Amino acid sequence: MAHRSAWKNRWTFMLATAGSAIGLGNIWKLPYMIGVNGGSAFVLVFIACIFFVGIPLMMTEILLGRRAQKNPLDGMATLANEAKTSLHWKWLGGMGMVTGLLILGFYSVIGGWVLSYIIEAARGVFTNVTGAQSTANFDALLASPLTLLCWHTVFMVMTMGVVARGVNSGLEKANNILIPALFAILLVLLGYSMSVGDMAAAYQFMFSLDFSKITPVAVLSALGHAFFSLSLGMGAVMVYGSYLKRDISIARTTVYIALADTMLGLLVGLAIYALVFANHLEPSAGPGLIFQSLPIAFGHMPWGNLIGTLFFMLVAFAAWTSAISLVEPAIAWITENTKIKRASATVGLGIMVWLLGVAVLLSFNEWKGVKIVFGLSIFETLDKLTSTILLPLGGLLMAIFAGYWMKKDHVQDELNLNDAHFKWWRTLNNIVAPIAILAVFLYLFEVIK
Ligand code: PHE
Fold first, then answer.
1. By alpha-carbon position, which residue is closest to atom 11 of ligand 1?
2. CA distances for 440 relative to 27, 92, 262, 372, 427, angstroms
3. Mutate which of 58, 225, 231, 331 to test ligand 1's pocket (most atoms within 8 Å of Cβ)?
4. Is any ligand 1 atom within 6 A of the Cβ of residue 231?
5. Ligand 1, residues 114, 228, 229, 314: which to mutate, most atoms within 8 A of Cβ?
6. Which domains does the chain have, with CATH numbers?
7. Does this model's pTM top 0.90?
8. Which atom belonging to ligand 1 lies closest to the Cα atom of 23?
9. CB-side exposure of 336: number of CA atoms within 13 Å?
């Protein structure tokens, strides 16, 4: 078999996996979900989901990848073979690869919105913008298929450009530059929010312990989001784990990555809400929070254009490093099974996902009336199908495979934990996580009925 790439060291693996985890989920989705779901109650439940389900399952996914040393589909076949069980488990890997491409189909379109907002902010479009104007600007973007198409194309070319260069010169290099840059911008943003925003109100909104606001919906959307946010259940973390050398501790690395991902989401949330409250804007503005409300805040504050530009650059970097990980499982499968070169495979897959993205962007304007299921548009269908069904389902099956099918010694061989920690992992992986995920599915059935 051809030589397999590997991360240079633990640090580059951590940056890459954190790069995958930190994305639109943290900066675009988490803050508005906090707003819509009542603030502090949601934050508390989300943190609990990360600790009790996210961290153990991330360990599981990395251990599966590292043991298999292959792309997710062949990797699951290898592991099933080792566990002397049905080779059909490989379809779990196959499902993950497809899920990644489906997510990228809409992720790239939103990534495109972000790119266009970098330019808008730099051009000074936010200066003194009113609420109505800001909404009109956003609506105008969504109503223009051509503008959306241009930015979606740019985002896809950026993503595929990195993937084509391979693990070390592409993925590793991009993450080594973009993730530190992202944290640097975050610090600037936080400093700015502290000086001109209303941090006290933001803190109160996000962290005052108010148990009365915890509702079933908040709990279930928090769990779903824990999956999306940590990139779990579709093989991205698995394929990144397959490039990880054997001497690195999975548990410790996972905890660092999950902490970085969660902290970044919460800090961005604080920065955003400090600006929102200082400008008397609505915290529960929904998906438009960063595209409609935030520009109003930037437009009325000193240095707003500069900070606005930096803010959208931060979002773009985050989205870019996540997008890369969405295609890597499928690329690894193609290059490990055919003679097709990485660069050609990237172009081929890129065109397919680009076409899917075109359908997604049209669903905001020309094809607005097209409903796929339950009255959902193409964009909404892909979003809901992947984050509420495919990712948790993938995670559930991985947990069950590692917990009940793999030999205990093989798992322990990879995790290398002391007895107490291993027991913890097993309880969370074998019992807590599956029950939590099944509860989400039951709830979904209730809602759909
Ligand atoms: N974790 C990414 C985010 O928060 C999204 C993602 C999901 C990336 C699944 C890869 C796999 O935006």
1. 231
2. 24, 20, 21, 22, 19
3. 231
4. yes
5. 228
6. 10-448 (1.10.4160)
7. yes
8. 12
9. 18
349 secondary structure, DSSP code: H
Helices first, then strands: H and E counts in the chain? 23, 0
Interior CA angle at 321 toward 318 and 322, to 5°? 85
Place of tokens 């999950």: 258
CB 236 within 8 A of CB 230: no
Q: What is the pLDDT of residues 18-77, one digit of tens each?
A: 999 999 999 998 988 888 887 888 899 999 999 999 999 999 999 999 999 999 999 999
Nearest 5 degrees, angle CA 75-CA 77-CA 78? 65
